[in-house]
């Protein structure tokens, strides 16, 4: 699994012009699932992402986490995180998991956010969505389960 985590002042996701998820300060998480992902990796990713300390403290150091600032989470599924642009100009998405695997893991990630104390706002898997965010910093981290120890 791969997560692109952006520290935001606010973020929202809309479908057909209707806002379906909206947060103030916190994390906008774009979430991609690949073919060899598992529920255990999903849990590990959620714990890692939601534990990131990337908010500024009183000394202007990235030392505070979501709970320290009372932050929120907006999760948006994004299969394009596994797009391969190495050949030609049109990416292929062969590494992205199909819906049979990706939907349950996306839903588990949402449940893990809830379990960890951050009930997520979210988009709709497979929908054409419009995502808006006011990046803070900007600070953006890429967390991939293949890199976690």
TrEMBL record:
<feature type="short sequence motif" description="Gly-cisPro motif, important for rejection of L-amino acids">
    <location>
        <begin position="137"/>
        <end position="138"/>
    </location>
</feature>
<keyword id="KW-0378">Hydrolase</keyword>
<comment type="similarity">
    <text>Belongs to the DTD family.</text>
</comment>
<dbReference type="GO" id="GO:0051500">
    <property type="term" value="F:D-tyrosyl-tRNA(Tyr) deacylase activity"/>
</dbReference>
<dbReference type="GO" id="GO:0019478">
    <property type="term" value="P:D-amino acid catabolic process"/>
</dbReference>
<comment type="subunit">
    <text>Homodimer.</text>
</comment>
<keyword id="KW-0820">tRNA-binding</keyword>
<keyword id="KW-0694">RNA-binding</keyword>
<dbReference type="GO" id="GO:0106026">
    <property type="term" value="F:Gly-tRNA(Ala) deacylase activity"/>
</dbReference>
<keyword id="KW-0963">Cytoplasm</keyword>
<dbReference type="GO" id="GO:0043908">
    <property type="term" value="F:Ser(Gly)-tRNA(Ala) hydrolase activity"/>
</dbReference>
<dbReference type="InterPro" id="IPR003732">
    <property type="entry name" value="Daa-tRNA_deacyls_DTD"/>
</dbReference>
<dbReference type="GO" id="GO:0005737">
    <property type="term" value="C:cytoplasm"/>
</dbReference>
<dbReference type="GO" id="GO:0000049">
    <property type="term" value="F:tRNA binding"/>
</dbReference>
<dbReference type="InterPro" id="IPR023509">
    <property type="entry name" value="DTD-like_sf"/>
</dbReference>
<comment type="function">
    <text>An aminoacyl-tRNA editing enzyme that deacylates mischarged D-aminoacyl-tRNAs. Also deacylates mischarged glycyl-tRNA(Ala), protecting cells against glycine mischarging by AlaRS. Acts via tRNA-based rather than protein-based catalysis; rejects L-amino acids rather than detecting D-amino acids in the active site. By recycling D-aminoacyl-tRNA to D-amino acids and free tRNA molecules, this enzyme counteracts the toxicity associated with the formation of D-aminoacyl-tRNA entities in vivo and helps enforce protein L-homochirality.</text>
</comment>
<protein>
    <recommendedName>
        <fullName>D-aminoacyl-tRNA deacylase</fullName>
        <ecNumber>3.1.1.96</ecNumber>
        <ecNumber>3.1.1.-</ecNumber>
    </recommendedName>
</protein>
<dbReference type="Pfam" id="PF02580">
    <property type="entry name" value="Tyr_Deacylase"/>
</dbReference>
């Amino acid at each position: 699994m791969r997560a692109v985590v952006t520290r935001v002042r606010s973020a929202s996701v809309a479908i057909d012009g209707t806002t379906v998820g909206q947060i103030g300060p916190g994390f906008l998480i774009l979430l991609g699932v690949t073919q060899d992902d598992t529920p255990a990796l999903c849990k590990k990713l959620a714990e890692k992402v939601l534990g990131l300390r990337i908010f500024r403290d009183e000394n202007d150091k990235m030392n505070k986490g979501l709970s320290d600032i009372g932050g929120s989470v907006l999760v948006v599924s994004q299969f394009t995180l596994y797009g391969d642009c190495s050949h030609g100009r049109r990416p292929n998405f062969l590494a992205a998991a199909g819906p049979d695997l990706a939907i349950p893991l996306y839903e588990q990630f949402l449940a893990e956010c809830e379990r960890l104390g951050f009930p997520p706002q979210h988009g709709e898997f497979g929908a054409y969505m419009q995502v808006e965010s006011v990046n803070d910093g900007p600070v953006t981290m890429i967390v991939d389960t293949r890199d976690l120890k």
